[in-house]
C-alpha cells in the first residue's frame, strides 16, 4: 500500500511505503512557510467569479522563478541544472469556502523543447501519501528519454507536503506506524502512543486537518491544470499516486490525456488500514532477500542458507522484544524492529539488499550486547522513526490517510486482529493489523470517491510488489477493461517504470507516452530483462 519510505530519490528508493522518500542527494531542508501562508491571498477578480467561485484560482498568474532556495539546496540545484523552474499555485484551504483562507502548492516544470509535437503537461506524484514530487522531473525526464521533449514535466508537492504550505503536528517521530508488540501491555502502550499523536495533531494543526484529503489534493491538481492554461493533463502516479490518479480521473472526467499508474492500488481496498493484506508479499520479499544474503554469508554473516538467514531475523525480533537494542544513540524495541524490516523490503536490487543486510547485521550484533554504530541506511531509518526530524512528513501522511477513510475506533478490534494473525505471521501481522492515530481521529468530512467505471490507462506492477500487491493491479485491470497492464514478472519490486531498470517496461511506457495508443494487449516483462 502507500505508506512512506525512508527519504531518497525514487531511482534508489528503498521503500515508498513504510518510511518517507525524497532525493537521495537532497538535504532535509524544506521551505519553512509561516502561518501567514494560510491567510487569504488576493487573486485577480473576474466577472465570471460570481458564477464560478474557482475562476480566480483557475486564472491566476504563475510567477516562474529559480528552484534554488539557498546555498545548501541540493534539490533546487538539481532542478536548476535540468532546466526546471518553480512556481507557487494558490488554492483554497477549504473548497466549500473558496473565498476564505488560502494555501500554496509548490510545483516545478521542465518545459517541452519540441514545440511542434508538444503533448502538454505530465503531472507527477511519487506516492506516500505524503511524499514530495517537486524534485522528480529530472529523473522522470531521463526515464522518458526522447519523449520528454514533447512534454512539460511537472513535479507537484501536494498540499501540506514539501515546499507547499506545511502541516506539522510536532510529533516526536516521522511515522505513526509501529508494531503492536508481544503482549497486551505492549499493545496498550501503542494505543496510548497513537492517541497521543492524534491529540498533538488536534492541538497544533486542528484547523487544517479536515482539509488534508486525497479529494482536496485532486481538486488542487485541477487548479494546477487550469493555472497552466491546459484543458487536459497527462499523469504519472506511483503507489498512492495511482489512487490519486484514480480519484482525479473520477472527479474530473474528460480532463486526463495519457495516464500511467505504477504500483496500482485497488480503490475498493484503499482504507485507513493501508498495510492489511500485504503480509504474504512482504514475507515473499523477505525470503528473496534472505536467499541473496545467504549467498554472501562471508560478507554479512547472517547465515549460509535462506532458512538460517530468516532464523537470524527472528532471533533479532525476539531479542528486541526482550530488551531494546542499543544502536548508536537509539534504542530499537519490539515496536520498531518490524518497521525497520518492512523498510528494508520493496526494492529488488543489490544496493537495496546490501543496505538491508548491513542493517540486519548491525541489529544482530546489538542483540549480542555489542556497541554498534548503525550503518548509514539503518541510522537514517532510526532517525526517521525515533526522532521528530521528519514530523511534517508523518503528520501530513497520517492526516491524509485518516482524512480519506474512517477507521474502527474500538482498540479491541485491532487487538483481536493482531492476536488472530500473530501466530501465522509474528513479524509482519503485528504491524499490518495494529492500530494507529486514525482510531482516534475525527470522522472524515467527505465520503470516499466513487471511482469511475472505466479509464484507458496504462497500469504497471511487479508480481512480487510487497506494498501494492499484484492482485490489486489485476483488480483495476478488470474494473477498467479499456486499460492495459504491464507485468514485471519475478521481481519483489515496488515502483517499476524508470526505477527497476527493465527495458521492456520502460520502452512500453514511453511508446504510450509518445503515441497516446495503449498496447494492443497486456504485456509481460521478465525481471531478468535489465541492461
UniProtKB/TrEMBL annotation:
Keyword Hydrolase in record: yes
* Molecular functions per Gene Ontology: hydrolase activity
Highest taxon in the source lineage: Bacteria
Tell me where in this chain the Peptidase S33 tripeptidyl aminopeptidase-like C-terminal domain is found: 435-525
UniProt key word Signal: yes
Task: Note the Pfam families from the entry.
Answer: Abhydrolase_4
Segments for region (Disordered): 1-25
What keywords are annotated for this sequence in UniProt?
Answer: Hydrolase, Signal
Q: Where is the composition biased (Basic and acidic residues)?
A: 1-17
Protein family membership: Belongs to the peptidase S33 family.
> PANTHER family this protein is in?
2-SUCCINYL-6-HYDROXY-2,4-CYCLOHEXADIENE-1-CARBOXYLATE SYNTHASE (PTHR43248), TRIPEPTIDYL AMINOPEPTIDASE (PTHR43248:SF29)
User: In its UniProt entry, what is this protein called?
Assistant: Alpha/beta hydrolase
Q: From what organism does this protein derive?
A: Streptomyces hawaiiensis
Amino acid at each position: 500500500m502507500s505508506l512512506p519510505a525512508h527519504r531518497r530519490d525514487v531511482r534508489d528508493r528503498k521503500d515508498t511505503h513504510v518510511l518517507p522518500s525524497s532525493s537521495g542527494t537532497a538535504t532535509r531542508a524544506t521551505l519553512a512557510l509561516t502561518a501567514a501562508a494560510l491567510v487569504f491571498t488576493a487573486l485577480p477578480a473576474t466577472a465570471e467569479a460570481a458564477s464560478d467561485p474557482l475562476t480566480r484560482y483557475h486564472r491566476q498568474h504563475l510567477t516562474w522563478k529559480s528552484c534554488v532556495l539557498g546555498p545548501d539546496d541540493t534539490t533546487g540545484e538539481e532542478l536548476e541544472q535540468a532546466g526546471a523552474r518553480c512556481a507557487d499555485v494558490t488554492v483554497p484551504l477549504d473548497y466549500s469556502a473558496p473565498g476564505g483562507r488560502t494555501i500554496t502548492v509548490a510545483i516545478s516544470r521542465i518545459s517541452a523543447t519540441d514545440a511542434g509535437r508538444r503533448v502538454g503537461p505530465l503531472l507527477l506524484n511519487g506516492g506516500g501519501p505524503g511524499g514530495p514530487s517537486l524534485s522528480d522531473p529530472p529523473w522522470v525526464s531521463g526515464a522518458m528519454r526522447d519523449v520528454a521533449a514533447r512534454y512539460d514535466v511537472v513535479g507537484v508537492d501536494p498540499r501540506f507536503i514539501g515546499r507547499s504550505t506545511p502541516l506539522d503536528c510536532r510529533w516526536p517521530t516521522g511515522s505513526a506506524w509501529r508494531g503492536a508488540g508481544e503482549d497486551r501491555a505492549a499493545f496498550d502502550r501503542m494505543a496510548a502512543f497513537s492517541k497521543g499523536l492524534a491529540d498533538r495533531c488536534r492541538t497544533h494543526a486542528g484547523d487544517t486537518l479536515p482539509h488534508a484529503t486525497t479529494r482536496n489534493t485532486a481538486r488542487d491538481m485541477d487548479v494546477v491544470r487550469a493555472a497552466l492554461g491546459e484543458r487536459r493533463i497527462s499523469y504519472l502516479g506511483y503507489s498512492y499516486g495511482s489512487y490519486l490518479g484514480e480519484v482525479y480521473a473520477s472527479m474530473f472526467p474528460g480532463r486526463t490525456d495519457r495516464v500511467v499508474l505504477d504500483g496500482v492500488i485497488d480503490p475498493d481496498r484503499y482504507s485507513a488500514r493501508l498495510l492489511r493484506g500485504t503480509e504474504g508479499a512482504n514475507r515473499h520479499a523477505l525470503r528473496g532477500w534472505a536467499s541473496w544474503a545467504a549467498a554472501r554469508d562471508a560478507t554479512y554473516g547472517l547465515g549460509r542458507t535462506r532458512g538460517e538467514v530468516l532464523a537470524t531475523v527472528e532471533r533479532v525480533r525476539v531479542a528486541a522484544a526482550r530488551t531494546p537494542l542499543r544502536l548508536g544513540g537509539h534504542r530499537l524495541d519490539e515496536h520498531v524492529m518490524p518497521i525497520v524490516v518492512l523498510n528494508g523490503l520493496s526494492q529488488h536490487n543489490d544496493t537495496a539488499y546490501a543496505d538491508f543486510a548491513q542493517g540486519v547485521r548491525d541489529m544482530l550484533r546489538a542483540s549480542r550486547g555489542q556497541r554498534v554504530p548503525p550503518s548509514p541506511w539503518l541510522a537514517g531509518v532510526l532517525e526517521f522513526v525515533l526522532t521528530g526530524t521528519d514530523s511534517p512528513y508523518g503528520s501530513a501522511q497520517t492526516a491524509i490517510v485518516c482524512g480519506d477513510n474512517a477507521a474502527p475506533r474500538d482498540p479491541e478490534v485491532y487487538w483481536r486482529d493482531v492476536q488472530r494473525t500473530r501466530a501465522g505471521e509474528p513479524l509482519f501481522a503485528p504491524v499490518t493489523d495494529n492500530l494507529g492515530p486514525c482510531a482516534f481521529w475525527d470522522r472524515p468530512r467527505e465520503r470516499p470517491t466513487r471511482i469511475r467505471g472505466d479509464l484507458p490507462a496504462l497500469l504497471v506492477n511487479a508480481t512480487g510488489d510487497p506494498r501494492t500487491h499484484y492482485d490489486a493491479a489485476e483488480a483495476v485491470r478488470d474494473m477498467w477493461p479499456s486499460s492495459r497492464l504491464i507485468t514485471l514478472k519475478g521481481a519483489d519490486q515496488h515502483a517499476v517504470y524508470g526505477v527497476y531498470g527493465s527495458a521492456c517496461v520502460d520502452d512500453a511506457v514511453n511508446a504510450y507516452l509518445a503515441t497516446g495508443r495503449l498496447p494492443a494487449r497486456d504485456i509481460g516483462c521478465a525481471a531478468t530483462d535489465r541492461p
